Amino acid sequence: MSSDLNKVKSSGIQMNPESVGDKLGYEKDSKERMPWEHYLEEYKNADPYEISERLSISYNETEKSFELPFLGSIYQISWPEFHVTHKEDGIGFYPLEEMIYARILTIRFLLGGSATKGTGKMKTYREMPWGEVYLRQFDGRCIKRLAFSYGNRLKDFNRVMEHIHAVPVKHGDTAYEIEIYPGYQVQMILWEGDEEFPPSSQILFSDNFPVSFQAEDMAVMGDVIIGSLKGFVKVMQ
């Protein structure tokens, strides 16, 4: 999935050092539209039956839409327009309808991903084959951001993860596993801060991620997940 992104980068998009999204050409307005329009054109020319078979997701020929789970909700994504709607589930915030980064990740997954299951082993970003590529950005915008946002608010973190039906796992002071796409699991781990030590966190990925995602995808993915948590919190208040 990285070759397409390289084409977008070579088109002259300016990178802002503020975020992972900026660095990857996923950021606002014109920078946002250029990669989106690029992938949307590929999506329009894709074969929906090939996508359905490759990813093992359903495609409704009558409605011309895919059904795709994403972060605890189920979405219908039309072809060729990529119009997104969600199935009612009470979660209240729907990243694929609200966040352009989530939409770009998803259209890239539909275009280049594969249906696969991991072995059960979870890996850090650094342990991925290309883990050093965006490690500094991933650490700053994902690992440290997660710790800063919820390291001293474990109850709030637990509430929001339970709200999206994440599965608790035995790591750190609290941790949950979520499925971002079918077969692709992410674990969010927190250690609470105290008077001596600041809070810390870790994000683990199922070991099948390299089959469908590259370094830039996963760096933005961490950004998307943490940004989505804020949206879930707002609708819970």
Structural write-up:
This protein is of the alpha+beta class and 237 residues long. It has 2 domains: 2-112, no CATH class; 122-236. It is 45% helix and 19% strand. The protein contains 10 helices and 9 strands. A hairpin with a 4-residue loop joins strand 1 (59-60) and strand 2 (65-70). The longest helix has 22 residues, at 215-236. It starts with a helix and ends with a helix.
Mean pLDDT: 87
What low-confidence regions span 5 or more consecutive residues with pLDDT below 50? 2-30
How would you write the strand order of the largest sheet?
5-9-8-7-6
Assembly annotation: single chain
Q: Biggest sheet, open or closed, and with what strands and sense?
A: 5 strands, antiparallel
β-strand number: 9
- Number of helix segments? 10
Distance between the termini: 38 Å
- Outline: globular
N-to-C SSE series? HHHHEEEEHHEHHEEEEHH
- Structural class, by secondary structure, is alpha+beta
Helicity, in percent? 40-55%
Kindly estimate the percentage of residues that lie in beta strands according to DSSP: 15-25%
Number of domains: 2
- Return Rg in Å: 17 Å
Helices and strands in order:
Blueprint: H1 2-9, H2 20-23, H3 29-45, H4 48-55, E1 59-60, E2 65-70, E3 73-78, E4 84-86, H5 95-98, H6 100-112, E5 122-124, H7 135-150, H8 154-163, E6 167-168, E7 174-181, E8 184-191, E9 200-206, H9 209-212, H10 215-236
Antiparallel strand pairs: 1-2, 2-3, 3-4, 5-9, 6-7, 7-8, 8-9
Helix pairs in contact: 3-6, 7-10, 8-10
